[in-house]
Every structure is written in structure tokens, then in C-alpha cells.
Amino acid sequence: MKYFLPYAFLLLAILSPNLYSQSGALRLNFDEEGTTYVRASIRAQLWARYTDLNPGSEIYGEAADTYFDVSARRLRLNINAQVTPKIYMSALFGGNNMNYTTSDTFVLKVLDLYAEYKFSDFIELGMGKSGWQGLTRNNVRSSASLMALDAPLFSLNTVNRTDDTARNLGLWIKGKVKDVDYRFVLNNTLAYNGGAPAADAEFATIMPRLKSSGYVKYEFFDKESNKSGYSSSTHLGSKKVFNIGLGFMHQPRATWSSPNGTDTLFHDLTHFAVDVFFDSPVNSSAGTAITSFLGWYQMDYGPDYIRNVGANNAANGTNGNRSFNGTGNAFPMMGTGTTIFFQLGYLMRKDLLGEGNEQIQPNIAIQFSQFEKLDDPVLVYDLGVNLFIKGHLNKLTLGLQNRPVFFDNGTDIAVEERKNMMVLQYQITIN
């Protein structure tokens, strides 16, 4: 019964004729003007993928160098309601990474469940479980409007360590003051079920401390909505946006280490970031637009903290020939040090493929990280192209990721080779 609620809402959204407005949206207005309402959306991101696996990778005990698989990267069911002009509620159900190793254990769960009260445009107060947090716009990016194949996952800096799929229970204050958009958040972190402290910092298995974070951006041109914490990666020429943002994140006694094997040292998690986002039409009549993002992140988890992450990992084991990266498509994604992230995309003219709504958007993303633990920098390239059939609601994405593979030879941890992953993604949304 604990998983009944998401399916009940899904059935209601699909079958109830009262939810369909004249525009065909899954929406029910509470008043004639539509200022109060309840609405729903259903979204899936489906992957067909070919992966060069890291050295030493195994799949159910059998060594494998490459693998092809089909998976569901994300499934989402969102229900939100403007209950009164001042009260807003949102619930998000879903899950990530339904692949051939997880399809029998995959479940929908509650990702977001929160309410907000709007005192004015200057100040709104929210509380519940959500992705609201500070540091940068990418920490709470919308997976529904990504420009690249996937999000810059390094920015989800505590994902599934002290949070639940990058979400926590907490409270926040947000608002807009003229050209300034701000949010400040206080979150309960989850207890980490790890082992004893080791030489390198790792999240501590102790009483979890509160995590504070904030983000302030100056909006030079069009204003972005702060209705949701999930920011768009590209507006597809619908807005002219130029923002500069500053953010922080702090959690005391978040990690621990024991460099001598005897004493336990505790370390604060302290992150700072600066980002610049530009998204603008180039030729409105032709439908062309440019999108770019540049972010600088200074992250401190404690001495020599490093974490390998393989999104929607295609392998589930390693053998004695393993690299420092670990299994499958993992690589050193986050750690103590500095990261620079750059993204650029260009939306091509709307009649390029003939009359119709289909548009093409080639894009590139680069992550450059210099981590304390590693002797070489982490340099990851993502090349992609989007085919927008109906904007972000219905699109195809072809993405190629090139990642470094590190080896630990006992004296240094350095790059010895590089591997690729190619993904064809189909995203479909009903709202």
C-alpha cells in the first residue's frame, strides 16, 4: 500500500475527464479566471545507450568491455495546485535509472511534497520535502528542460549521500526585489550509513547536522519564474535572459577522516559558486536562439574527498583489473577542489527541416575539475543535438560523452585512457 498513492494520482490524471481543459491540459481550474487550479503532468526520459565500460567492469560476475542497454533514465508524475492566491502546493512522484539491473526493484516514490505561502512578490515561505537549495541554478535544475543529454551531476554535490535523490526536508524563504531573485534554505540532511573514518574524508556516520544554503542572482533582462525551484537549462528563444548569480552551501561536521588511523577529525562541508547564464533569441522570425552557461565552483568536503559516480550505471561489479573510476561509466565527478563548467547551445532556424515545428539544437558541455585527490584534472566532454518535435514536451536527444579513466599506480592517480558513452534519448511529457 505504501506505493499506492502515486499510482492512484496517475490513474486520476489519465482517466478523469474533468481534468481536461479546453486546451487539452491536465488541469482543473477552481475559478473562472484560472488563478486557482490543480494540474498534473507525466514525463518519461527513455534511453538507448552504448557504453565503453571502464577497465575491470563486470556485469553479474562476467567481465565486459562494452554494453548496449535500454533504460528509463527518469519517470516523473507532478501534481501541483494554487489552492488560493497565496497558497501553493506541489507533489512530485518518480524514480531514476530503471535499467536491466534495477527493473525488478524500481519503485515510484515521493520526491517532492511541500507547500508555500506568498506574503508578496518580495517574500514567500516554503516548507516540506523538495529540491530547493542554494549554491547555483544547476543545483535545482529542471530535468524537463535540459539542453544537454543530462544535468551537470557534479552540482548535485550530496546526491544520495545525505539527501534523497538531491532532495531534503526543510524550509526556505525566496522572493524577488526588483531585479534581484533570492533564496535561502535550511535543510535537514539524512544520516549517512557508511563505515569507519579512513585517511580521506567521507561523509560521517553521526547525527546529521542542518545544512544551510543560499543563492542570489541579478536579472538584467527578462525575469525567470521562481514558482518552482527547478530552473530551465534553455528557454528555446522564448525569453531574453542574462543573469549573474552567487551562492553558498554549508554543513558543519559533515565529513570525517582519520589520517593516522587513530584520531577522528571532523570537517565542515563548505561550497561557494559563481555562475553566469545567457539565453536569448538571435532572430525571432527565424526562431534561432543561443544559450550559454558558465559556472565556477569551489567545493570543500574535507581533505582528499573524492567520489566516483556513474549515472544509470550499465555495470554492477569490478574485478582485479579495475581502474580508479570503478565500474561501468563512472568517473571522479565530485570532490574537494575547483570545478569550472561551461555549456553552449544554438537553436537553429525553425524551417531548416521544412515547414513544421521541428527544430535542431546542437550543444556542448565541458566539465573541468581540479581535485585534491587526483594528480591530473578531470576533463569531461558532452556533445549533443536535440530534435524538438514539440519543444521540451516531445524531443529526441543524441548525446556523446567522453570521460577520463584514472588509475592509481601507488604514487599518483592519473589519466591513462578515455572512454565514450553514446545515448539516444526520447523525452515525452503529457501535461
How is this fold's topology laid out?
Elements: H1 4-15, E1 27-29, E2 37-52, E3 57-59, E4 62-63, E5 66-82, E6 87-98, E7 109-120, E8 123-130, E9 168-177, E10 180-188, E11 202-203, E12 210-219, E13 241-257, E14 265-283, E15 288-300, E16 306-309, E17 317-318, E18 331-335, E19 337-347, E20 359-371, E21 378-390, E22 394-408, E23 413-430
Antiparallel strand pairs: 1-2, 2-5, 2-23, 3-4, 3-17, 5-6, 6-7, 7-8, 8-9, 9-10, 10-12, 11-13, 12-13, 13-14, 14-15, 15-19, 16-18, 19-20, 20-21, 21-22, 22-23
Keywords:
431 residues, three-stranded antiparallel β-sheet, single chain, mainly beta, 1 helix, 16-stranded antiparallel β-barrel, Porin
Biggest β-sheet, characterized? 16 strands, antiparallel, barrel
Beta-strand content? over 45%
Gyration radius, in Å: 22 Å
Give me the number of helical elements.
1
Euclidean distance between termini CA atoms: 26 Å
Structural class: mainly beta
Mean pLDDT: 94
Number of strands: 23
CATH topology: Porin
Q: What would you say the CATH architecture is? A: Beta Barrel
Q: State the helicity in percent bands.
A: under 10%
